[in-house]
């Protein structure tokens, strides 16, 4: 049997999902809700806490609880990598017209704000082992933060690694000023003669760190999805490694596995 606070949360949730309470609308005060439902303020606080954990409301300090505005959803599919590969050799004008984020969100280039940083780092043991190179090998570490211009939080926290010597043949790949790169990483690798043959993804989940929760604007109780993407060339060599942290309240990942016919 549901607890009193769960019943109250269910009723408020239904009002939000049905549109009777609209995004940005302030909920009645805790005292007013306690009077409406004939329950104590602590019970109301438990109900509101549950709604916040579900991402339906947010608490604004000194102002009260508000129906949370719907964030732009990201719908990812592993089929996107073939879409990216098909574009890697297209003319730059075509590659520049849209990218992976636009593909996954339905937005357009003009809707997005990009922030990228590059730095050279020495490969720690875990990363070196993944690449099959000696510890301390020079890497290019690239961090990406892309957001919808109408929102403050990025869609994901992305850190990508390339072995510096692998891409140094094209100096443009070492210059952050060239981001966002038309055609993304697959085109970047193509410029130095690398074709991707396989991409592996390892997916896990956990509670966010305080820094992740702050940057992604996560409500308490919201998990993050961790995706380690490893890209291999035709010789089985790892040529790019990405660690991607996705907000669990606005990300959907679909894995499609084509099966060979008998």
The biggest beta sheet reads: 6 strands, antiparallel
For the record, the CATH architecture of the largest domain stands as 3-Layer(aba) Sandwich
CATH superfamily of the largest domain: Chorismate lyase-like
Which spans of ≥5 residues are poorly predicted at pLDDT below 50? none
Q: What is Rg?
A: 22 Å
CATH topology of the largest domain: Chorismate lyase
Distance between the termini: 50 Å
Elements, N to C (H/E): HHHEEEHHHEHEEHHEHEEE
- Please give the CATH class of the largest domain: Alpha Beta
Structure commentary:
The protein has 262 residues and is an alpha+beta fold. The chain has 2 domains: 64 residues, Arc Repressor Mutant, subunit A (Orthogonal Bundle), CATH 1.10.10.10; 181 residues, 3-Layer(aba) Sandwich (Chorismate lyase). The strands form 3 sheets. It has a 6-stranded antiparallel β-sheet. It has a two-stranded antiparallel ribbon with strand order 1-2. Strands 3-10 form a two-stranded parallel sheet.
Task: Report a brief summary of the structure.
With 262 residues, the chain is α+β, with helices and mostly antiparallel strands. It is built from ten helices and ten strands.
Feature tags:
single chain, 262 residues, alpha+beta, Arc Repressor Mutant, subunit A, Chorismate lyase, 2 domains, 6-stranded antiparallel β-sheet, two-stranded antiparallel sheet, 10 helices, 29% strand
